[in-house]
Design goal:
Helix content: over 70%
Number of strands: 0
Radius of gyration: 16 Å
Low-confidence stretches: none
Strand content: under 5%
Number of helices: 7
Length: 163
């Protein structure tokens, strides 16, 4: 099981990296749903959400314990954006660390942490029945990723950084 999660993490991280440029190459409303349309922190959360969701779906096809797997991944879908946003603003505002190397490291650390959390949660069996309770917040989060692409509130997290 560990090997499958590791492979899924590597493929999802690579897919997220590729998604970063998808809208730039093919700009239209459909690609805007899954790919960042600007350099805002919020838009970059799509690089975590969609590849992780796809990886969970693929992994769930190969297991009989789907509820355990989904509980872990749904939890990870809620924890990853919170971690990334907190770490990003902590690094930027407190430590004055920013730039492409920092952003890339933060992306891969967040993605790896999410997959590790999903694996550990699924393995522990403690959250096995949590999937139905986690599904609604994850659906709302996914819907907000789409909605705020087209109607972003005037908050810093939704604005591209000023250079």
């Amino acid at each position: 099981m560990k090997k499958r999660y590791l492979i899924a993490f590597l493929v999802a991280a690579a897919a997220g990296s590729a998604l970063h440029f998808f809208y730039e190459v093919l700009p239209n409303p459909l690609t805007a749903l899954i790919s960042p349309v600007n350099e805002s922190v919020w838009e970059h959360l799509k690089l975590l959400f969609w590849p992780t969701l796809c990886a969970a779906w693929v992994l769930s096809m190969a297991t009989a314990e789907k509820l355990r797997l989904w509980s872990g991944f749904l939890l990870a879908q809620l924890v990853m954006p919170v971690f990334l946003l907190c770490a990003y603003y902590l690094l930027k505002c407190v430590f004055h660390l920013e730039g492409l190397p920092v952003d890339l490291a933060l992306y891969f650390i967040t993605m790896a942490g999410g997959f590790l959390l999903a694996y550990l949660a699924a393995r522990s069996r403690k959250l096995e029945s949590a999937a139905p309770w986690l599904l609604l917040p994850v659906m709302l989060y996914g819907a907000s990723l789409i909605l705020f692409t087209f109607a972003a509130p005037p908050l810093p997290v939704f604005r591209p950084p000023m250079d």
